[in-house]
C-alpha cells in the first residue's frame, strides 16, 4: 500500500517540486497540498495521511503550532519538517511539538525520500547537515549538568531566566541587559511557553534545579 502524503508549504514552486519528486515513487502518493498552516491542519483531519511534509514559516498558522495540532488530533500522521532554518531552536521546537523528522531544503531528493521512509518506521530523522550541531549542543548541555529542557532555551533566554529567578523585576532585567521592557516580557513569554511553566515560582525552581542560579546573592 502506498504511503499517503500531504505537502504543506507557502511557496508554490516548492510544492510543485515536491509533488513531482514524490509522485515518481511507486510506493508514495500525494493526497493533498496546503499553502498555510490552517489548511494543513484541515487537510490532515480530512485525509488522515501517513506523513505530512511541512515548512515552519507559513502564514495563518506557523508550522510549529500546526505540528502541535496535527500530532494531537491525528496520532497516526508522521510529521517531517522541511525548512531553510538550521538553528537548533527551530529543530528542538519542532521535535517538542511532535515532529519525527527535520530536513533542510538544501538536502537532496534522496534524503527526503529516506526521511519519509524513516519516520514511517517510527524512527527519528535529522538532516546530516544539522546532526552534528544538535549533538554538540546536547553534549555541551549534559557536560554542564544542564538538562535538555534548558537546552531548548537560547543564551539570552537563559540570562533572562536567571535574573527572573534572582528576583529582578522586568525593569531591572531590561536595564541590566540594555533592552526594552517589552523585549524582556517577550523573552519571559517564550521561556514559559518552551518550558510549559507559567509562574515565577515555577521558573525559579526550574532555574535552581538546572543550575542556572543558586539565589545566593
Short description:
Helix content is 55%, strand content 13%.
Descriptive keywords:
about 220 residues; alpha/beta; Rossmann fold; Arc Repressor Mutant, subunit A; 6 strands; about 55% helix; elongated
Can you describe this structure?
The chain is an alpha/beta fold and 217 residues long. It folds into two domains: 128 residues, Rossmann fold (3-Layer(aba) Sandwich); 65 residues, Winged helix-like DNA-binding domain superfamily/Winged helix DNA-binding domain (Arc Repressor Mutant, subunit A, Orthogonal Bundle). Helices cover 55% and strands 13% of the residues. It has a six-stranded parallel beta sheet with strand order 2-1-3-4-5-6, with helices on both faces. The longest helix has 16 residues. The radius of gyration is 20 Å and the shape is elongated. The mean pLDDT is 86.
Amino acid at each position: 500500500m502506498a504511503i499517503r502524503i500531504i505537502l504543506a508549504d507557502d511557496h508554490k514552486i516548492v510544492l510543485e517540486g515536491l509533488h513531482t519528486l514524490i509522485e515518481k515513487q511507486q510506493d508514495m502518493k500525494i493526497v493533498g497540498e496546503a499553502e498555510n498552516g490552517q489548511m494543513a491542519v484541515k487537510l490532515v483531519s480530512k485525509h488522515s495521511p501517513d506523513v505530512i511534509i511541512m515548512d515552519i514559516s507559513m502564514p495563518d498558522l506557523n508550522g510549529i503550532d500546526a505540528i502541535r495540532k496535527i500530532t494531537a488530533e491525528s496520532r497516526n500522521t508522521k510529521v517531517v519538517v522541511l525548512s531553510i532554518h538550521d538553528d537548533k531552536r527551530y529543530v528542538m521546537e519542532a521535535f517538542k511539538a511532535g515532529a519525527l523528522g527535520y530536513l533542510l531544503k538544501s538536502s537532496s531528493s534522496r534524503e527526503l525520500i529516506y526521511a519519509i521512509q524513516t519516520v514511517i518506521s517510527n524512527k527519528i530523522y535529522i538532516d546530516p547537515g544539522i546532526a552534528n550541531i544538535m549533538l554538540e549542543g546536547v553534549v555541551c548541555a549534559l557536560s554542564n549538568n544542564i538538562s535538555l529542557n534548558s537546552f531548548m532555551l537560547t543564551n539570552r533566554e537563559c540570562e533572562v531566566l536567571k535574573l527572573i529567578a534572582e528576583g529582578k523585576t522586568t525593569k531591572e532585567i531590561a536595564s541590566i541587559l540594555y533592552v526594552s521592557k517589552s523585549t524582556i516580557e517577550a523573552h519571559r513569554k517564550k521561556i514559559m511557553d518552551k518550558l510549559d511553566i507559567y509562574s515565577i515560582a515555577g521558573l525559579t525552581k526550574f532555574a535552581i534545579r538546572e543550575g542556572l542560579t543558586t539565589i545566593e546573592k
